Amino acid sequence: MIGEHRTKKGSGIVIDMGTNRPSSVSLVAGIDAGSTETRVCLAEMADARIFSDESRIKDALEVLGKTYVTPSTYAMTADNREILPVDDQLENNLDSIIMMVHVAAERPMLTRHRILRGRKTRDAMGIVARYLDSSTNKSDNTVFYTNIIDGLGYAIMQKYNGAVPQEVQLHLTLSVRPKELSSICRKKMLDNLVGQYVFAWKSNSIKLNILGVEFSTEPEAQVFGTSTVCDLKYANNEGDKYKALADKLWDAGTYIHIEGGGSSIGVEVVRGGQLVTSCSATFQLGGNYMQQMFVDRVIEHMGRTPTSDAAAEALQTTLLRDGREVIDVDSIVADCKNQVAADIVERLRHAVIDLNHWLSLQDVGFISLGGRLFRPDAKGNTITEYLQEYIHQMSPNTEIIVLEDNYIPQGNLVMAVNDAVKSGFFVLDNADNGNSNHDNGSYTAEPVGVSSGYQEQDEDSDSPV
Description:
Elements: E1 24-33, E2 37-43, H1 45-51, H2 57-64, E3 68-71, E4 74-76, E5 95-103, E6 112-117, H3 119-123, E7 129-130, H4 142-159, E8 167-176, H5 183-193, E9 195-201, E10 204-217, H6 218-235, H7 240-251, E11 254-260, E12 265-271, E13 274-276, E14 281-283, H8 287-302, H9 308-317, E15 319-322, E16 325-328, H10 330-353, E17 366-370, H11 383-394, E18 399-403, H12 408-423, E19 456-457
Parallel strand pairs: 1-8, 8-10, 11-17, 13-19, 17-18
Antiparallel strand pairs: 1-2, 2-3, 4-6, 4-7, 5-6, 5-9, 9-10, 11-12, 12-13, 12-14, 15-16
Helix pairs in contact: 2-6, 6-7, 6-12, 8-9, 8-10, 10-11
């Protein structure tokens, strides 16, 4: 068609709730509620049966490959104004209402809110963007709870597009910062999440009954998700490199994983296959920190203050918009990444290694890096290369490994499925979903074959259990 090449293409996802909607379904969800994106993976009982059937590796990879993403930044409006969408695609219609029906909290973090995201926030006047910051505990942050409920609603609509259920029973596993795994933070999150909610979109609604919630840290979920997917890809004959990476993650005596997100980075130490809780740490050195550093450097060197959108774009493209022209800011971007790498190493040395008498950098076999913070820019520059240089100055034989894909929601999903099978939420005995390769059409299913690989280690112990 004439002019079609000038038309901007979107995701192409258009939601049809359906005329004959199922009354109820049961799901487990793995969630990565980050500061930039909220990523959700879902599994129903049929998917859990796939995970427990070793003959259906491709199907398991397909289930884990479906991640539903919504932007984490949003705005609220108290009125019912009409905000006309540019088209019918879901990404341009992120306009929902979430309602808390019942939770245990005396002062619930959520009540009833109209939530605008994406294009809708730009098309509405007089609204203020809200985002997940690094200084506030997620347990105390309304944005955290809003993103979970809203993200679940949009994920369910996409998974069941054409026949969206009216009611959903849910068990969740989601990632929080290491310091938020305390009993006080856990209780507050459970009191505000376990309960009944309603997600409304256009003229339709979904009842969400959250029956249970488990927690992980982002580094824990990333390593678990990466090793699980790598094991499945190796079993699917996609290459020995996947087995090598999965084996390296589990066979190393001691290694450190750093997960770099938008608001902060999380650090975990795994020793002898076990998570060392005394070494868990969170630092405010994420993408937002680097973006502010870039803005400060541009003010210093160029005398102008770039907007947050322009700064975010420049950190990826190394080009800063200047009217109809662009300015090459590669050297400023590289300088910022060098500084962030130096800051990470210093925090790692003083706040993790120096505080544990049994740990030295020479004991660490490798440091794995995950998250968008460590992705290369358009010129190929990364924080990783500077980080590696600083680490090798102190420990030349400590390897740096980059985990390129975000498998946090996948890791959480597999944990959630295992918990659902063990608790009886999913009953898989003598199950036949019609696609099994078993001759008798039935089998006794076990929890997912790939376990998390490590457990928490007593911080006072000097040797792995």
